[in-house]
Specification:
Layout: E1 10-12, E2 25-28, E3 53-55
Antiparallel strand pairs: 1-2, 2-3
């Protein structure tokens, strides 16, 4: 899916009354883990994933590999 509207991992910002915020902003809650390396390899430094901000009006160029349809 090229947007996060119905994704299970999408957590949208809400107003004080519990409605979707008019800003359209939210956060992706998918936990990203470092891949396991063979014994002959090692990490140089400490790689970490950044970002996670999402927006209801954003249409991404590619489908998200972690998209999971939210169950009603």
């Amino acid at each position: 899916m090229k947007n996060c509207l119905k994704c299970n991992y999408a957590r949208w910002n809400l107003t004080k009354t519990g409605r979707l915020s008019p800003t359209g902003e939210g956060h992706c809650t998918k936990a990203v883990e470092r891949p396991i390396l063979p014994n002959a390899f090692y990490w140089i430094g400490c790689p970490s994933a950044g970002g996670g901000s999402i927006h209801r009006k954003t249409e991404y160029q590619m489908d998200c590999p972690f998209y999971e349809e939210r169950k009603a």
